[in-house]
Structure prediction request, 336 residues.
Amino acid sequence: MRIAENIDLKPFNTFGLSSIAERLVHITSQDDLVEYFESAAPYPSLVLGGGSNMLLTRDIPGTTLKIELPGIEVVDEDATHYYVRSGAGEVWHAFVLKAIESGWAGVENLSLIPGNVGAAPMQNIGAYGVEIKDVFHSLEAYLTADKSFETFYLKDCNFGYRESVFKRTLKNRAIICSVTFKLKKTPSFNTSYGAIEQELERMGVTDLSIKAISDAVIAIRRSKLPNPKEIGNAGSFFKNPVITKGHFESLKKRYPNIVGYPAADDVKVAAGWLIENAGYKGKRVGDYGIHTRQALVLVNYGGANGEDIYQLSEEVINRVEEMYDIRLEREVNIIR
Prediction:
C-alpha cells in the first residue's frame, strides 16, 4: 500500500482537471483494502478508479483511495462459455483487446470505452447494442461497513440503463475488487446497431469476426468522440431520457426530426439531438465547451476548472427542459 500526500489528480481523471488530494492511497491488492479499513484510518472521501466518469469541481480533503487491483484470468469454462475474471484496476479497453486476442466473444462492441473494469458494472456501460449485464456473471466487492468481501451475481446488481445497485443503495458502501464475465466460445455477432454494418463494408470486411467488429467500433468512436488524451472529457455527459409516447408525439409535431427509439411502452430520446437542436453543439466558452462533433460530450480544452463545466451542464439542462419539457440527467458522477 503506497501513500502520497498533496497529489494533483489531474493525471487520474479523463477531464484532465486539477484537484489536490490531501492523501492518496494506492490499493494494489485486496490485502491493502483489508489493512486500510481495519486500521484507524479515516473513511475515504473518494474512491477512484480510472477517473473516466467523474467531474472534479474541488480539492479532495482526507483520503482518496486509488483502486489498482490487477489481473486477468480464466477461472472456469463450460461447453459454451469462458468465465473470465479481471481485477477492477485493469483498463477496460485493454481487457477487451485481451478478450479478442484470446477468442472470448461478447465485449467487442464495447471497444474503446474509457475507464477501468471496476466501473463497468457500476455504470452498466453499454455501446452498439451491448451492455455489461449481457456478459456479466458476478463480481466481488468489499463492503466497508461489514469489513468483508461479498460476491454479487446478476440478480443482485439491479442493472438498468447506466444504473446498478452500486450507484444507488450501495453507493459509498461497496468497493468493486474484481469482475467475472461470461464470454462466448462461439461468437454471435451484433452488427445491427448504429453504423457498424456500414463501417464493416467501408473496411472491406468479408469474413466477420470479433476483431473486425471491434475495429469497426473503434473507427466509429474515433470519428465521433474526442480522445481524452488530447481533449479532456468523460464521454457522454448526459443519459438519453425516457419519455411517454404521448409526450414524444407532441414533440414530434413541433420538431419533426426529433430522434427517439422504442423503450418498452415509452420512448428513449437522443439527448445529443436535444442538445444540438438547442444550439449547444460546438459551443465554446474560453477553455471549455461542448464538442464540435458530439453534443453529448462536454470538454476541457485545457486550463478549465470543473465548476465551470458543471455550470455549463446546468445551463444545458435548464435550456433543454425549457424547450422540450424534458429534464436531462447527468451520467457523469459529480464531485462538488
